[in-house]
Amino acid sequence: MLLLLAPALAAYLLTSLWLLKRPRLLHRAKRLAFRARHVSHRGGAGERIENTMEAFRHAVDCGTEMLELDCVLTRDGEVVISHDTDLYRQAAVRGEISDLDFQDLPLYKESMEVYFYPGHYSTGRDRRIPRLEDVFQNFPNIPINVEIKVDEPLLISKVSDLVRRFGREQITVWASASDKIMDQCRRENPSMPHIFTQSRLICLLLAFYTGLLPFLPLRESCLEYPMPSIIGRYYKATNWILEFSLVVRVLDWLLMQKSLIKHLEDRGIQVYIWTLNEEPDYRRAFQLGASGVMTDFPTKLRHFLDSSHLPSPPPAHSRG
Asked: For 186-242, how does the pLDDT look when each residue is reduced to its tens digit (9 = 90+)?
């Protein structure tokens, strides 16, 4: 029996490896309307107070090619930009954003610690919590990655309505770690590109390491995932198991595979690695073939891109 299975298994593995390098023989490449090497996490949380209009303007002035942000719904139905649903970390006020009207939201703190760079604080003149509508209005041509963390159908509906109203379905990305939330987002507005959820990333890795990936269709347009090697250097793990260096090294090996990234890129799926705040990590991400890097420091990433002479990325598919 084993003698019969061995040739079949060998043929499967050889075919899988061959197709891994030639994915367009089975799959039509996705054609997104944007290419983003420079992605500003929370608008560039290391240089201005996160998720403020000042942060977004500063990132755009630095030449960012995508803004990353999170949305929450106020009591009076305004979609506002905030990473957290509660106000304590950002404004030192006890309470939920959903319990207040937009006009009653407090100002952010005068300085805020950078989540992915503990010990570093950002400041700025603008401390107001902005609306998503204002961001769309001020940056009509900038791609925006909109993350939905809360299972709130009304929030998803309102975000979708704003995207349609401003005519930016091709340059606004649905993002969520939750399958349930992502399913709602896709039902609400299937025209928008979307990322891999956490469970879909696990399935992607299983398919890659079992050789199935070249044969499988993928509905996602973007992969956004972390570089585990930053854990313990300038980001402290919140999960106890990640305090073990061996676990981090194994995760880093599993995730940071150049052949996986190239396969996805060849299928038109853009790969963004987060949240990187040091030049050696920028360099490693681009050497692995990542489409872009998500950073808290847009000035630092812009300096790196301008001085590193990276190859020009493939052109984006024009909007039309």
From this structure: 999 999 999 999 999 999 999 999 999 999 999 999 999 999 999 988 877 778 888
d(CA 316, CA 320): 12
| Single pTM value for the model | 0.95
Vertex 290: Cα angle to 289 and 293 (nearest 5)? 145
pLDDT in tens, 146-170: 999 999 999 999 999 999 999 999 9
Give the model's pLDDT for residue 136: 98
φ and ψ of 160, to 5 deg: -60, -40
Here the contacts of 10-13 (C-beta below 8 Å, separation 24 or greater) are: 12/211, 13/211
- 107 has pLDDT over 80: yes
Cα(299)–Cα(161) distance, integer angstroms = 33
Long-range contacts of 95-103 (CB under 8 A, 24+ apart): 97/72, 97/73, 97/129, 98/72, 98/73, 98/74, 99/75, 100/74, 100/75, 101/74, 101/75, 101/76, 102/74, 102/76, 102/78, 102/131
Q: What is the predicted pLDDT for the residue at 1?
A: 60
Q: Token digits for 36? A: 């983003």
The answer to whether the CB of 154 falls within 8 A of the CB of 73 is yes
Q: Model confidence at 75, in pLDDT bands (50, 70, 90)?
A: very high
CA distance 82 to 90: 9
Spatial distance between the Cα atoms of 107 and 116, rounded to a whole number of angstroms: 22
CA Rg value for the chain: 20
